[in-house]
Each structure stands twice: as structure tokens, then as C-alpha cells.
Amino acid sequence: MDEQNIRKKINTELMNAALIEAKSFEIIGEILEEKGIVLSPEEEPVIKRCIHTTADFDYADTLTFSKNAVPVLKKLITEGADVVTDTNMALTGINKKELLKYGGEIHCYMAEEDVAKEAKERQLTRAFVSMERAMRIERPVIYVVGNAPTALISLMDAYEQKQYRPAFIIGVPVGFVNVEAAKELVVESNLDYIVNRGRKGGSNVAAAIVNAVLYNLREESNN
């Protein structure tokens, strides 16, 4: 297709970021309706933002929520829980301005020199060790895992040994090795979680889930 024909297909009225996002969510809603997919009001903002982030409608089927997951996550955020991510990409993607309204802080220990040194000495991944580091935080922590299944394994090991209980886990690591099994450990626990079953996920999806809840809280406060 030549440039002239491509330009004819571009909607020049939708060049504003807010308008583009609004139109995107409108299209997502229409496609979900065409597919006969009805989402619960609590989970809808999260699922739609994951679809918006990835253009992948599989999330309507694979994104899995523990009972009352979204209200629990909202309560943790509004009470000032901290957030720990397994990548700096997820840390960067989360809207820190919205999170800081409630007093929570966000951390990522993956790039810390002592974490890397300890991981090498113990022959573990940095993600595993960084979660151990996060368990020292003396307030409730929301764990946002979008890349490393070993981060989930670290959390679940501590939980199963009754050494630590994560306040909430967002478990959406992407990949092929230990990814599905690590997610299932979370799903089979009695923890509060949002997990994407299967191989799909990523740091962008992890950040999108947090942002969906933050933006929903903002909308509720404005109404």
C-alpha cells in the first residue's frame, strides 16, 4: 500500500493522546461485546487496560483474580502499602504520582550491587534475592512481577515455610521456563492475587494492572 492510501486510512481527528485512549477503550468494549464476553464491573478496568496495553484479547480469558482481588488491592493502595517490582521497566511504567497520593512507595532491588553479588554467590537469580530483600520492608507490600518467575518462587517459598505472607501478588511473568508453574503456585495458594495464566505477561502488563486500579480509584474519588 502506498503512502497516499495509508494516509487515507488515518483518522486525523484522533491525534490527541486522551482521545486515542478513549477511542481504544471504546473499540475494546465493542470487540468484547461481539465475542459475547461479559466482564464483572470490578475486574473490567483491569482486563480492558491489559488488552489496551497488548492488543491481545486472550487476557479476557486468562487473567485470573482471587476472591475480591480488586477491592483488596484498592484497600492496600489507599492505606499506603508499598509496591515492589521485579524490573525497572515495571517500576517506570507505574504511575508514581497516583500511587504517592496514598503514601505508598515503590521499590525495585534488581539493579542493587549487593543483590547481584549475593545472587552470584548463592547461584540464584537476582529476582529471587531481590524478593527476599523486599520481605524486610516493615509494611504491607504489593508484589508486581512481570518478568521473573523466580520472583514468584521466592515469595511462595517463604510463604509455604510460614516465614512471610505477601499482602498481594500481581503475577504476570512472561516466558517459557517455570513461568506457568510459578503462576499456578500463586493461584493454588490462599493469597490475594491477580495472575495471568499461561506464558503471556510482561512488565508492561504488570504496570498496566496497577495503573488500572490507580486510575479507577481516581475516577471514584472524582465522582
What this model shows, in words?
By secondary structure, the protein is α/β, with parallel strands linked by helices. It folds into 2 domains: 1-38; 41-222, Rossmann fold, CATH 3.40.50.10230. Helices cover 54% and strands 10% of the residues. It contains 12 helices and 6 strands. The chain has helices spanning 3-8, 17-34, 44-54, 59-62, 69-78, 88-93, 96-100, 113-122, 126-134, 149-160, 179-187, 203-222, and strands spanning 63-65, 82-85, 106-107, 141-145, 168-171, 193-196. Strands 1-6-5-4-2-3 form a 6-stranded mixed β-sheet, with helices on both faces. Strand 4, helix 10 and strand 5 (168-171) form a beta-alpha-beta unit. Helix 2 (17-34) crosses helix 3 (44-54), helix 3 (44-54) crosses helix 12 (203-222) and helix 9 crosses helix 10. It is globular, with a radius of gyration of 19 Å. The mean pLDDT is 92.
At a glance:
By secondary structure, the protein is α/β, with parallel strands linked by helices. The protein contains twelve helices and six strands.
